[in-house]
């Protein structure tokens, strides 16, 4: 049996997962952007714990040293769309906001720092990248993996009016080194499923993707993406690891997460933030991925899993953790910060205590 007790939120059908995951994301967003002034369900101000529970002691501001001031209340960053059940969503015609032309100074193998910030913000070219019109605004830093998870975000988030897109910084937990137009591109899918649906001229997230011209060189691509993380997380201070406010992951039938595969040598990588992959056992072989220490250092680590094909690996993760299984490693190493959103099919014959998710944001 696993030595950790993650929160496992189960749903009769996967259709119920999208709304709950969206609520979980917004709760994390609110806790990050206003950790001492959140009013949920008309309760007293409190921050949100990672497992969907109200935690009045949770305060992430100290860990986000680069974002120490309050959210700009005069800046409207809500997207106003119909609820998911009523929305007729079509991609917007406006161009996608991109952010990948960042550079940084060299780093050592133990800590990373950057002493200058000269790149531009696509939302306002006169400001540093990652800044809003109020440069002191806090940012919600989220990393996502690809595949069906992005479809869940499309279904759950686009119909909500409380997503503060203009305060988001979006990174990718891994990426397949293919052109952005390729169906296997995580960024390409995020663009088509999320960014292209945001209303023209509305606040947009700053999205950090790979440099497409480097897809034939995994090492160079990983180095470039690590520099983006260093720019975003170590612009002012030397840090050992970045701290994402939320990291969203899937879990494959073989137990791989991000592009970290079972029994791979990269599972032992403990210095790099981003690593190249040249030998993925299925799908595009060339990739980049966040490393285990970065994944486990996030404030919240959330798995989204569906289908009976995942039940055998979930049984292993929850009942007899395997040290060579990436999902097991994360579930154990990030103990106390992990939540699972799954349908009942994925928990067939899995001995766990299921929880009913209570919506926190109204």
SSE blueprint:
Elements: E1 7-11, H1 15-33, E2 47-48, E3 54-55, E4 120-121, E5 124-128, E6 140-144, H2 148-157, E7 168-172, E8 174-176, H3 186-193, E9 206-207, H4 218-233, E10 246-249, E11 274-277, E12 287-290, H5 292-296, E13 301-305, H6 311-319, H7 326-333, E14 338-343
Biased composition (Low complexity): 105-134
Organism: Nadsonia fulvescens var. elongata DSM 6958
Protein name: Nagb/rpia/CoA transferase-like protein
Describe this structure in words.
There is one protein chain. The chain is of the alpha/beta class and 362 residues long. The protein has a single domain, classed as Rossmann fold, CATH 3.40.50. The protein has seven helices and 14 strands. It has helices at 15-33, 148-157, 186-193, 218-233, 292-296, 311-319, 326-333, and strands spanning 7-11, 47-48, 54-55, 120-121, 124-128, 140-144, 168-172, 174-176, 206-207, 246-249, 274-277, 287-290, 301-305, 338-343. The strands form four sheets. The chain has a seven-stranded parallel β-sheet with strand order 1-14-13-10-6-7-9, with helices on one face. Strands 8-12-11 form a three-stranded antiparallel β-sheet. β4 (120-121) and β5 (124-128) form a beta hairpin. α1 crosses α2 and α2 packs parallel to α3 (186-193). The longest helix has 19 residues, at 15-33. The two termini are 36 Å apart.
Structure characteristics:
362 residues, alpha/beta, Rossmann fold, seven-stranded parallel beta sheet, three-stranded antiparallel beta sheet, 7 helices, 15% strand, phosphoprotein, transferase, transferase activity, Nagb/rpia/CoA transferase-like protein
């Amino acid at each position: 049996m696993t030595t950790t007790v993650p929160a496992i939120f189960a749903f009769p059908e996967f259709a119920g997962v999208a709304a709950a995951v969206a609520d979980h994301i917004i709760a994390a967003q609110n806790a990050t952007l206003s950790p001492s002034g959140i009013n949920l369900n008309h309760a007293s101000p409190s921050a949100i714990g990672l497992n969907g529970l109200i935690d009045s002691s949770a305060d992430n501001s100290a860990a986000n040293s680069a974002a120490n001031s309050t959210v700009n209340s005069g800046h409207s960053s809500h997207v106003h769309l119909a609820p998911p059940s009523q929305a007729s969503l079509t991609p917007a015609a406006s161009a996608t906001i991109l952010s990948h032309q960042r550079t940084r100074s060299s780093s050592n193998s133990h800590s990373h720092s950057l002493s200058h910030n000269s790149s531009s913000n696509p939302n306002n070219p006169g400001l540093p990248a990652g800044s809003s019109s109020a440069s002191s605004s806090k940012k919600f830093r989220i990393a996502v993996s690809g595949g069906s998870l992005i479809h869940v975000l499309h279904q759950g988030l686009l119909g909500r009016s409380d997503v503060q897109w203009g305060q988001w910084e979006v990174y990718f937990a891994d990426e397949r080194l293919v052109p952005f137009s390729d169906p296997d591109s995580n960024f390409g899918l995020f663009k088509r499923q999320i960014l292209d649906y945001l209303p023209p001229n509305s606040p947009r997230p700053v999205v950090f993707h790979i440099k497409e011209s480097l897809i034939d060189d995994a090492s160079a691509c990983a180095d470039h993406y690590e520099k983006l993380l260093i720019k975003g997380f170590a612009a002012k201070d030397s840090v050992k690891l970045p701290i994402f406010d939320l990291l969203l992951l899937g879990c494959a039938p073989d137990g791989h997460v991000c592009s970290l595969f079972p029994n791979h040598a990269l599972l032992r990588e403990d210095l790099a933030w981003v690593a190249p992959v040249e030998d993925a056992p299925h799908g595009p072989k060339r990739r980049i991925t966040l490393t285990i220490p970065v994944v486990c250092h996030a404030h919240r680590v959330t798995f989204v899993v569906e289908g009976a094909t995942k039940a055998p690996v979930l049984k292993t993760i929850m009942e007899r953790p395997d040290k060579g299984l990436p999902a097991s490693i994360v579930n154990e190493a990030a103990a106390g910060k992990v939540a699972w959103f799954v349908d009942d099919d994925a928990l067939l014959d899995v001995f766990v205590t299921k929880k009913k998710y209570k919506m926190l944001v109204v």
